[in-house]
Amino acid sequence: MKIVSLSSTGYDLLMKIVSLSSTGYDLPMKIAETFIRDITSYRDSVQAARAKSYHKSTREHWGIPTPSLDAVVKRYARQHAVPTLLPLSQALWQTEIFDLMIAAGRILAQQKIPPSADLWRILTTYLNDVDGWALEDQLYHAAWKCLLQTPALLDEIETWTAHENMWMRRAALIYTLPYTKPGYDPERMLTWMGTYASDPEWFIQKAIGWWLRELGTHNPQRVIQFLNVHWALLKGVARKEATRKLDEQWLQQLSRSLP
């Protein structure tokens, strides 16, 4: 039965989501319909072309402004329960449309969705499809929730550090950023970063710098120790990010200790 209130594109997408729902997702058709109607009203072909080029993406882009996308996601999070939001997120991710995949990740990040084994299973399934930083970073809030509730997940995350997929290796750092905060032991992740130091990938080096920069806000001495050992192997982006927020006294100490 055709839903005349949707554009042909929206209707085709709805049929795709309903098809996905029939394979195991418990997603009411009406909710999928209204979500598509709400989100497609913000499509911008000019912005879509810019975003596709910027992200060097092979996916379809709709150019939906971030504030508009966030507003729709938050409204649905208020209106619907977790048993509806999780399959909605899964169905949106499966469309392979960049903007809807972003929305899928942001649904998982909503405060009303608690950490759980099911949430962890969903986001790690998504990780298999990640091919860029924008999609990967949409998942870190959900990952942080799960990790902080279940620290034993570090064992699984550690296996990612040797993964052939660079985005999996990067996720091992981005998804453990809570361990840069006071009260958490960073040593396990610092060991991983030691093995990453010679990794030529720019995004890995950037992630090392990001992790060290956050740790340095309260433990600059440990950051200096790490840099003293690995400085020669680290690329410029890692060095720059790691030291960007260090006080002058720590920068001087680093300068004196380097060959």
Automatic annotation (TrEMBL):
Q: Which residues form a coiled coil?
A: none
- Tell me the domain of life: Bacteria
Under the heading SUPFAM superfamilies, the entry gives:
ARM repeat
Could you tell me which InterPro entries the record lists for this protein?
ARM-type_fold, DNA_alkylation
Indicate what this protein is called per its UniProt record.
Answer: DNA alkylation repair protein
* Native species: Candidatus Entotheonella gemina
